[in-house]
Amino acid sequence: MTKSKLLILGNSHSEALPRDPIDGYDLEIHWLKTKDNAKFGTMTLPEAREKAASLTANDTLVLMHLGALHNIYGLLNHDVPYGVLLDDGTRVGPEDAQIIPVSSIRAVFQNKFESDKVVPAIKEATRAQVVHVMPPPPKEEIPERFRNKGGDYHGRGIAEFGFAPADLRLALWRIEESALSSFLGKLGIMHYAAPAETLTATGFLAPDFYANDATHANAAFGKQLMDAIVRLSKSRAYI
Protein backbone atom coordinates (compact mmCIF):
# COMPACT_ATOMS: atom_id res chain seq x y z
CA MET A 1 0.00 0.00 0.00
CA THR A 2 1.37 3.39 -1.02
CA LYS A 3 1.65 5.83 1.84
CA SER A 4 0.63 9.47 1.62
CA LYS A 5 3.18 12.05 2.64
CA LEU A 6 2.54 14.37 5.56
CA LEU A 7 4.99 17.26 5.48
CA ILE A 8 4.93 19.72 8.38
CA LEU A 9 6.88 22.95 7.98
CA GLY A 10 6.73 24.50 11.40
CA ASN A 11 8.25 26.80 13.97
CA SER A 12 8.87 26.62 17.70
CA HIS A 13 5.29 25.43 18.25
CA SER A 14 5.85 22.38 16.04
CA GLU A 15 8.40 21.12 18.57
CA ALA A 16 5.45 19.85 20.64
CA LEU A 17 4.34 17.47 17.88
CA PRO A 18 5.10 13.75 18.26
CA ARG A 19 7.48 12.11 15.80
CA ASP A 20 5.97 8.63 16.12
CA PRO A 21 5.13 6.75 12.89
CA ILE A 22 1.57 7.23 11.62
CA ASP A 23 -0.24 4.42 9.83
CA GLY A 24 -0.61 5.21 6.14
CA TYR A 25 1.73 8.21 6.20
CA ASP A 26 5.34 9.12 5.64
CA LEU A 27 5.82 11.89 8.20
CA GLU A 28 8.39 14.67 7.98
CA ILE A 29 8.60 17.62 10.37
CA HIS A 30 10.96 20.54 9.79
CA TRP A 31 11.46 23.88 11.51
CA LEU A 32 11.19 26.40 8.69
CA LYS A 33 14.09 28.86 8.52
CA THR A 34 12.62 31.89 6.78
CA LYS A 35 15.64 34.20 7.10
CA ASP A 36 19.28 33.46 6.33
CA ASN A 37 20.37 34.88 9.69
CA ALA A 38 17.66 33.12 11.70
CA LYS A 39 18.94 31.61 14.94
CA PHE A 40 16.65 28.60 14.69
CA GLY A 41 15.46 26.44 11.83
CA THR A 42 16.36 23.28 9.95
CA MET A 43 15.04 23.95 6.44
CA THR A 44 15.41 27.07 4.30
CA LEU A 45 12.59 28.49 2.20
CA PRO A 46 14.12 27.32 -1.11
CA GLU A 47 14.51 23.84 0.36
CA ALA A 48 10.92 23.95 1.61
CA ARG A 49 9.64 24.96 -1.82
CA GLU A 50 11.56 22.11 -3.42
CA LYS A 51 10.16 19.65 -0.89
CA ALA A 52 6.64 21.04 -1.37
CA ALA A 53 6.96 20.69 -5.14
CA SER A 54 7.68 16.97 -4.76
CA LEU A 55 4.30 16.32 -3.12
CA THR A 56 1.28 15.02 -5.01
CA ALA A 57 -2.41 15.82 -4.73
CA ASN A 58 -2.77 12.85 -2.37
CA ASP A 59 -0.34 14.37 0.13
CA THR A 60 -0.80 16.96 2.87
CA LEU A 61 1.41 19.93 3.68
CA VAL A 62 0.98 21.61 7.05
CA LEU A 63 2.35 25.09 7.69
CA MET A 64 2.91 26.60 11.14
CA HIS A 65 4.26 30.02 10.25
CA LEU A 66 1.82 32.88 10.88
CA GLY A 67 -0.30 33.69 13.92
CA ALA A 68 2.06 35.03 16.60
CA LEU A 69 1.10 38.70 16.33
CA HIS A 70 -1.25 38.49 19.31
CA ASN A 71 1.77 37.66 21.47
CA ILE A 72 4.16 40.12 19.83
CA TYR A 73 1.73 42.99 20.38
CA GLY A 74 -0.13 41.81 23.44
CA LEU A 75 1.67 39.28 25.63
CA LEU A 76 3.25 42.02 27.76
CA ASN A 77 1.89 45.31 29.06
CA HIS A 78 2.78 48.45 27.14
CA ASP A 79 4.19 51.80 28.24
CA VAL A 80 0.80 53.28 27.42
CA PRO A 81 -1.84 50.76 28.56
CA TYR A 82 -4.41 49.97 25.89
CA GLY A 83 -7.63 48.05 25.60
CA VAL A 84 -9.81 46.99 22.68
CA LEU A 85 -13.43 47.82 21.93
CA LEU A 86 -14.87 44.69 20.32
CA ASP A 87 -17.57 44.55 17.66
CA ASP A 88 -20.26 43.70 20.23
CA GLY A 89 -19.38 46.71 22.38
CA THR A 90 -17.42 44.72 24.94
CA ARG A 91 -14.30 46.43 26.23
CA VAL A 92 -11.25 44.35 27.19
CA GLY A 93 -8.03 45.41 28.87
CA PRO A 94 -7.14 47.64 31.84
CA GLU A 95 -9.90 49.97 33.05
CA ASP A 96 -7.79 53.12 32.64
CA ALA A 97 -6.42 52.12 29.24
CA GLN A 98 -6.49 53.95 25.95
CA ILE A 99 -9.16 52.23 23.84
CA ILE A 100 -8.43 51.03 20.31
CA PRO A 101 -11.28 49.91 18.00
CA VAL A 102 -11.15 46.27 16.99
CA SER A 103 -11.16 47.35 13.34
CA SER A 104 -7.79 49.03 13.83
CA ILE A 105 -6.26 45.93 15.41
CA ARG A 106 -7.70 43.75 12.66
CA ALA A 107 -6.27 46.04 9.97
CA VAL A 108 -2.79 45.82 11.49
CA PHE A 109 -2.96 42.03 11.50
CA GLN A 110 -4.31 41.87 7.95
CA ASN A 111 -1.56 44.16 6.67
CA LYS A 112 1.08 41.98 8.29
CA PHE A 113 -0.37 38.86 6.68
CA GLU A 114 -0.58 40.50 3.27
CA SER A 115 3.13 41.34 3.45
CA ASP A 116 4.13 37.73 4.14
CA LYS A 117 5.93 36.04 1.25
CA VAL A 118 6.51 32.62 2.78
CA VAL A 119 3.02 31.12 2.82
CA PRO A 120 2.12 32.12 -0.78
CA ALA A 121 5.50 30.90 -2.04
CA ILE A 122 5.04 27.46 -0.54
CA LYS A 123 1.39 27.20 -1.57
CA GLU A 124 2.27 28.06 -5.18
CA ALA A 125 4.95 25.36 -5.24
CA THR A 126 2.78 22.38 -4.30
CA ARG A 127 -0.09 20.22 -5.54
CA ALA A 128 -0.79 18.91 -2.04
CA GLN A 129 -3.65 20.07 0.13
CA VAL A 130 -2.31 22.77 2.46
CA VAL A 131 -3.36 23.36 6.06
CA HIS A 132 -2.07 26.21 8.23
CA VAL A 133 -2.09 25.74 12.00
CA MET A 134 -2.15 28.75 14.32
CA PRO A 135 -0.25 28.89 17.62
CA PRO A 136 -2.35 27.85 20.62
CA PRO A 137 -4.53 30.38 22.44
CA PRO A 138 -3.16 32.17 25.51
CA LYS A 139 -2.94 30.84 29.04
CA GLU A 140 -5.48 32.45 31.35
CA GLU A 141 -3.21 32.22 34.37
CA ILE A 142 0.46 32.49 33.50
CA PRO A 143 2.37 30.64 36.24
CA GLU A 144 4.08 32.86 38.81
CA ARG A 145 7.51 31.49 37.93
CA PHE A 146 7.26 33.27 34.57
CA ARG A 147 6.09 36.60 36.01
CA ASN A 148 9.41 37.46 37.62
CA LYS A 149 11.49 35.73 34.98
CA GLY A 150 14.47 37.59 33.62
CA GLY A 151 15.04 38.13 29.94
CA ASP A 152 12.83 39.75 27.38
CA TYR A 153 10.18 39.01 24.79
CA HIS A 154 10.70 40.75 21.45
CA GLY A 155 12.94 43.34 23.06
CA ARG A 156 10.78 44.11 26.09
CA GLY A 157 11.68 43.02 29.61
CA ILE A 158 9.29 40.44 31.05
CA ALA A 159 9.83 41.43 34.68
CA GLU A 160 9.74 45.14 33.85
CA PHE A 161 6.49 45.21 31.86
CA GLY A 162 4.64 42.17 33.17
CA PHE A 163 2.00 40.15 31.35
CA ALA A 164 -1.06 41.85 29.88
CA PRO A 165 -4.54 41.08 31.28
CA ALA A 166 -5.92 37.69 30.25
CA ASP A 167 -9.06 39.08 28.60
CA LEU A 168 -6.98 41.32 26.35
CA ARG A 169 -4.61 38.50 25.41
CA LEU A 170 -7.49 36.20 24.47
CA ALA A 171 -9.27 38.93 22.51
CA LEU A 172 -6.13 39.60 20.46
CA TRP A 173 -5.74 35.89 19.73
CA ARG A 174 -9.34 35.71 18.52
CA ILE A 175 -8.99 38.82 16.37
CA GLU A 176 -5.85 37.41 14.79
CA GLU A 177 -7.45 33.98 14.34
CA SER A 178 -10.33 35.53 12.40
CA ALA A 179 -8.06 37.72 10.27
CA LEU A 180 -5.72 34.83 9.53
CA SER A 181 -8.58 32.56 8.51
CA SER A 182 -9.75 35.18 6.02
CA PHE A 183 -6.26 35.67 4.59
CA LEU A 184 -5.62 31.95 4.19
CA GLY A 185 -9.01 31.36 2.62
CA LYS A 186 -8.09 33.70 -0.22
CA LEU A 187 -5.05 31.52 -0.90
CA GLY A 188 -7.01 28.27 -0.86
CA ILE A 189 -5.43 27.17 2.40
CA MET A 190 -7.36 25.54 5.22
CA HIS A 191 -7.03 27.31 8.57
CA TYR A 192 -6.93 25.33 11.82
CA ALA A 193 -6.84 26.92 15.26
CA ALA A 194 -6.68 24.40 18.13
CA PRO A 195 -8.28 21.11 19.21
CA ALA A 196 -11.44 21.86 21.20
CA GLU A 197 -10.48 19.35 23.88
CA THR A 198 -7.37 21.38 24.74
CA LEU A 199 -9.32 24.54 25.63
CA THR A 200 -11.15 25.80 28.69
CA ALA A 201 -14.84 26.67 28.53
CA THR A 202 -13.90 30.31 27.91
CA GLY A 203 -11.41 29.56 25.13
CA PHE A 204 -8.05 29.72 26.88
CA LEU A 205 -5.48 26.94 26.64
CA ALA A 206 -6.31 24.47 29.42
CA PRO A 207 -3.65 24.15 32.18
CA ASP A 208 -3.05 20.46 31.40
CA PHE A 209 -1.57 21.57 28.08
CA TYR A 210 0.81 24.29 29.32
CA ALA A 211 4.46 24.02 28.32
CA ASN A 212 7.20 25.40 30.52
CA ASP A 213 6.97 28.99 29.30
CA ALA A 214 4.40 31.73 28.75
CA THR A 215 3.36 31.01 25.16
CA HIS A 216 3.89 27.37 24.16
CA ALA A 217 1.85 24.20 24.60
CA ASN A 218 3.22 20.85 25.72
CA ALA A 219 3.56 17.38 24.21
CA ALA A 220 0.04 16.41 25.32
CA PHE A 221 -1.28 19.30 23.22
CA GLY A 222 1.00 18.21 20.39
CA LYS A 223 -0.53 14.73 20.44
CA GLN A 224 -4.05 16.15 20.21
CA LEU A 225 -2.97 18.50 17.43
CA MET A 226 -1.33 15.71 15.43
CA ASP A 227 -4.50 13.62 15.72
CA ALA A 228 -6.47 16.59 14.38
CA ILE A 229 -4.03 17.09 11.51
CA VAL A 230 -4.36 13.45 10.48
CA ARG A 231 -8.16 13.69 10.58
CA LEU A 232 -8.04 16.77 8.36
CA SER A 233 -5.67 15.03 5.95
CA LYS A 234 -7.92 11.99 5.67
CA SER A 235 -11.03 14.11 5.18
CA ARG A 236 -9.51 15.81 2.11
CA ALA A 237 -11.66 18.72 3.23
CA TYR A 238 -9.90 21.49 1.33
CA ILE A 239 -9.04 20.06 -2.06
Notes on the structure:
By secondary structure, the protein is of the alpha/beta class. It has one domain (4-235): Rossmann fold. It contains eight helices and eleven strands. The chain has a six-stranded parallel beta sheet with strand order 3-2-1-4-8-11. It has a three-stranded mixed beta sheet with strand order 6-5-7. α1 runs parallel beside α4 (118-125). The longest helix is centred in the C-terminal third of the chain and has 21 residues, at 166-186. The radius of gyration is 18 Å and the shape is globular.
Task: Explain the layout of strands and helices.
Layout: E1 4-10, E2 25-33, E3 43-44, H1 45-53, E4 60-63, H2 69-74, E5 82-85, E6 91-92, E7 98-101, H3 102-114, H4 118-125, E8 129-133, H5 144-147, E9 152-153, E10 156-157, H6 158-161, H7 166-186, E11 190-192, H8 219-235
Helical fraction equals: 25-40%
Order of helices and strands: EEEHEHEEEHHEHEEHHEH
Task: Give me the number of helical elements.
Answer: 8
- Average predicted local confidence, pLDDT: 92
Biggest pleated-sheet summary: 6 strands, parallel
**Extended strand count:** 11
Notable features of this structure?
single chain, 239 residues, alpha/beta, Rossmann fold, six-stranded parallel beta sheet, three-stranded mixed beta sheet, 8 helices, 34% helix, 18% strand, globular, SGNH hydrolase-type esterase domain-containing protein
